[in-house]
Write a structure and sequence with these properties.
Layout (H helix, E strand, L loop, with lengths): L1 H24 L6 H8 L3 H7 L2 H24 L6 H17 L2 H12 L5 H17 L6 H22 L8 H9 L1 H5 L4 H15 L8 H4 L1
């Protein structure tokens, strides 16, 4: 049991060090040897636990989990439905990323190279599925699965194409559209979407979350 615990602690230490180095030096500029030296572990041990690409994937996976945890901790009792939860999540997620140059560089690599872990995909798709089911829309399961694929591809492309627009006057306009793509694709009314956007405007004022949480997860 002690050996297992030590192994988990070592793996977590490697990830923590890798996140900091990726953030400060850049992903391509950081070597496995850099990570091993900073974590004070053998290079072979880093390679045993992780491929370099998976380190970046796990870094964003932990970041996503951290955001959901903070949402529940800070405003969970005030959230009325899954649409609101998704709206808040993507405002925090993309707001952190597009307002921080170092994190944005990592995110673009993470998305374009498709370093997303299967566990991350499962979490995001389950949340989209819950979102659609909560709307009580009558959709065939096979059609729903295809919509999930379309939603992911559309969201990925949209974020890549419009990232340069993020720092203009309406910073949340893009994230709100992205976070409600599944609802829009499955026929939710604009009135329902706008009502939920209005609700979370007040909730966002209660939340404290920054790009620094990427390193601190």
């Amino acid at each position: 049991m002690g050996h297992y615990k030590k192994g988990i602690e070592t793996k977590n230490k490697i990830l923590s060090v890798a996140k900091k180095l990726f953030y400060e030096k850049g992903f391509k500029e950081t070597t496995i040897a850099d990570i091993a030296n900073t974590a004070d572990v053998p290079v072979g041990l880093v390679n045993y636990y992780y491929k370099k690409n998976d380190l970046l994937g796990d870094a964003f996976h932990q970041f996503i989990l951290k955001i959901y945890t903070e949402i529940e901790t800070q405003v969970g009792n005030h959230i009325e439905n899954q649409i609101q939860r998704q709206l808040i999540f993507y405002r925090l997620y993309y707001g952190s990323i597009f307002n921080n140059e170092n994190l944005l560089k990592l995110y673009r690599l993470y998305i374009t190279k498709d370093y997303i872990l299967e566990e991350t995909q499962e979490i995001l798709q389950n949340n989209i599925y819950e979102n659609i089911m909560e709307l009580s829309l009558d959709i065939d399961h096979a059609v729903l699965q295809r919509l999930l694929v379309v939603e992911y591809g559309t969201r990925k492309q949209l974020v890549n194409d419009t990232s340069s627009l993020w720092d203009q006057q309406a910073p949340y306009q893009m994230s709100d559209f992205v976070s409600t793509l599944s609802a829009r694709l499955t026929g939710a009314s604009l009135a329902v979407i706008e009502k939920n956007i209005h609700k979370i405007d007040s909730l966002m004022k209660r939340i404290r979350f920054t790009a620094d949480d990427f390193i601190n997860t």
